[in-house]
Amino acid sequence: MPESYEYVVAAYGIWSLVFLLYVPLIKRKVRTLQQNIEALRNEDSTNTN
Questions:
Q1: Whole-structure pTM over 0.90, yes or no?
Q2: In angstroms, what CA-CA distances link 18 with 5, 27, 30, 38, 40?
Q3: Distances, alpha carbon 7 to alpha carbons 2, 10, 12, 18, 26, in Å
Q4: Mean pLDDT on 9-26
Q5: Which alpha helices (DSSP H) does 1-49 contain, by range?
Q6: Long-range contacts: 26-31, Cβ < 8 Å, 24+?
Q7: Which 8-state DSSP code applies to residue 47?
Q8: What is the dihedral of CA 24, 25, 27, 31, to 10 degrees?
């Protein structure tokens, strides 16, 4: 059975993987969303005649 420090190391490893994988993905989604919002605002401002 694993020792208590092995659980701690495993938990830190899992959290590290989560941050290394998901944070860049979330940042990319936010950037894409901001670009889409900006494009919609620009489209809206050109159609306000």
A1: no
A2: 20, 14, 17, 30, 32
A3: 7, 5, 9, 16, 27
A4: 94
A5: 4-46
A6: none
A7: T
A8: 130
